[in-house]
């Protein structure tokens, strides 16, 4: 696996110059400014003081969507002091941190085994998600350990709000008085509130990178980019392992906010929303089914419309929801029949332990770039989008297709103890019973999948395959 990484790494690092040139200065300036303010904050506050970070990230996202562009030119920006620094200084500082953050992201020497980089599980060619079809990636000291969960794509995380038990958003339903319930936070269970706090987990987890602050600091000091690192963070960054480790986390966070890599909004669907592309008949039908409250009803959780402020859709409302994903019996932890990954109520997450109403809930992931994945749901149980959409359409009409059948009886919701079943979602398409007609038939499932494929970044209007379908439907 590490050979892959070094390959990717070389290729990516060599692109750096080109990428830098490609940056749209004006949009990035505000993004960087926000990131920098966060970075400055992070130094003074605790690791988890993330609410501000999320807000700043949101501001950054808006700026990148160019909806709320306030900065008019780099020159005028340079005159505005921000947290004691001019924007030009902030720009320069973020540029240095981004460059070093990228090196760190691809560096397997930070791991205990020396073989695993962030990019091993979050591959740039796969929307920063897993490059293979394993349910759970391999890691740890011997590269054979497995955790509980599928590696998510880490694009489009910039707008994830800090975790809250009661979420009120004027964009959702247009009514701020609606309590959308538990929402936000990073990881499948929402247990972390910022990317710099997050990065500590894979670096130190025994089944992922299996390292520690001392080893990470030593690796950075010995790395070819050690000088670059000192240049970005100042003379004293190598004074203590703790200072070095914190700087590593910060550089990774800043890198993960690079707009053109992590939130380019360059899918066919984005082009369609902008009136610059047409969906095929199948894609358009899939979109309708996705939005139709009586059919897929997908958009009720995976938002597909622009927000009221014009921001592009995130394809998630960031809500934590229980949808009763079947138990993945291939996972080592699940060999113990008493073990359950209950999401927000534990055992990975500990602060909501004993809160029964949080058992079985996981954060709704974005569906942007989902077609680049080969593994779906928190436990990686499915490996094709058809299977996922079929689960939605038939979970309640044909449960025997998804859950084990023992002595003629379907063991429905086999990954959630019965006492938590009240937490399960029963909105359409989950509002049916055996014998009812499924919410969607096989041809409709195919069309939803065709639509999901329009959410992949990097759409090129002139690519030949885009003209292959004769049945073009206009966006108007
Ligand atoms: C062995 C595979 C593996 C490696 C290596 C790895 N990750 Fe992850 N990453 C995961 C898994 C699995 C999760 C989900 C964990 C959970 O929900 O409990 C995750 C979650 C994340 C998230 C949160 C995503 C979300 O949707 O909330 C971020 C950000 C992230 N990783 C960044 C990193 C960074 C930065 C590194 C390197 C320091 C890294 N990862 C290394 C597997 C990996
Ligand atoms: C009630 C809210 C809700 C509705 C409605 C909903 N989803 Fe989801 N979706 C979720 C949640 C929550 C998850 C993560 C569940 C888990 O892993 O336990 C998810 C996960 C997924 C995934 C896996 C993504 C990944 O990265 O692993 C896909 C694909 C998906 N949904 C597509 C759809 C489609 C298509 C529809 C409509 C047919 C739909 N969803 C309807 C909440 C919802």
UniProtKB/TrEMBL annotation:
Keywords: Heme, Iron, Membrane, Metal-binding, Oxidoreductase, Signal, Transmembrane, Transmembrane helix. One of its GO terms (molecular function) is electron transfer activity. It is found in: Cell envelope. Residues 96-253, 281-456 form the Cytochrome c domain. Gene3D superfamilies: Cytochrome c-like domain (1.10.760.10). InterPro entries: Cyt_c-like_dom, Cyt_c-like_dom_sf, Cytochrome_c_Peroxidase/MauG, Di-haem_cyt_c_peroxidsae. The chain crosses the membrane at residues 21-39. Signal peptide: none annotated. The keyword Signal applies. Its main location: other. GO terms for cellular component: cell envelope. This is C-type cytochrome. It comes from Paraburkholderia franconis.
């Amino acid at each position: 696996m590490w050979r892959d990484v070094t390959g990717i790494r070389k290729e990516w690092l060599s692109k750096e110059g080109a990428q830098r040139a490609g940056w749209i200065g004006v949009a990035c300036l505000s993004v960087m400014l926000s990131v920098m303010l966060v970075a400055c904050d992070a130094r003074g506050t605790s690791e988890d003081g993330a609410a501000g970070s999320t807000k700043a990230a949101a501001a950054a996202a808006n700026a990148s969507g160019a909806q709320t562009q306030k900065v008019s030119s780099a020159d005028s920006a340079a005159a505005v002091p921000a947290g004691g620094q001019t924007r030009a200084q902030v720009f320069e500082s973020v540029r240095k941190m981004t460059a070093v953050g990228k090196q760190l992201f691809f560096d397997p020497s930070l791991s205990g085994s020396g073989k695993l980089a962030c990019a091993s599980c979050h591959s740039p060619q796969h929307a920063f998600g897993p490059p293979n079809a394993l349910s759970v990636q391999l890691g740890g000291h011997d590269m054979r350990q497995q955790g509980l969960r599928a590696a998510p794509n880490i694009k489009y995380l910039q707008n994830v709000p800090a975790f809250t038990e009661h979420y009120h958003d004027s964009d959702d339903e247009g009514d701020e008085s609606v309590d959308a319930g538990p929402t936000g936070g990073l990881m499948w269970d929402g247990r972390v509130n910022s990317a710099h706090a997050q990065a500590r987990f894979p670096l130190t987890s025994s089944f992922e990178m299996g390292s520690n602050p001392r080893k990470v600091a030593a690796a950075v000091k010995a790395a070819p980019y050690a000088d670059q690192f000192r240049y970005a963070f100042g003379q004293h960054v190598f004074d203590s392992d703790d200072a070095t480790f914190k700087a590593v986390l910060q550089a990774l966070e800043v890198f993960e906010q690079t707009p053109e890599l992590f939130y380019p909004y360059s899918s066919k669907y984005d082009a369609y929303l902008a009136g610059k592309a047409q969906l095929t008949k199948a894609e358009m039908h899939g979109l309708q089914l996705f939005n139709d409250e009586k059919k897929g009803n997908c958009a009720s959780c995976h938002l597909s419309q622009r927000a009221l402020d014009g921001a592009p859709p995130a394809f998630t409302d960031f809500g934590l929801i229980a949808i009763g994903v079947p138990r993945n019996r291939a996972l080592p932890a699940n060999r113990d029949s008493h073990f359950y990954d209950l999401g927000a109520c534990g055992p990975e997450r500990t602060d909501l332990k004993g809160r029964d109403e949080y058992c079985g809930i996981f954060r709704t992931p974005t569906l942007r770039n989902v077609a680049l994945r080969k593994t779906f749901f928190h436990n990686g149980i499915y490996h094709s989008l058809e299977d996922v959409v079929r689960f939605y359409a038939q979970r309640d009409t044909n449960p025997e297709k998804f859950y084990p059948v023992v002595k003629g009886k379907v063991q429905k919701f086999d990954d959630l103890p019965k006492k938590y079943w009240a937490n399960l979602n029963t909105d359409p398409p989950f509002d049916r019973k055996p014998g009812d007609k499924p919410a969607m038939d096989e041809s409709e499932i195919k069309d939803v999948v065709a639509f999901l494929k329009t959410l992949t970044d990097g759409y090129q209007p002139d690519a030949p395959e885009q003209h292959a379908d004769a049945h073009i439907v206009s966006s108007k």
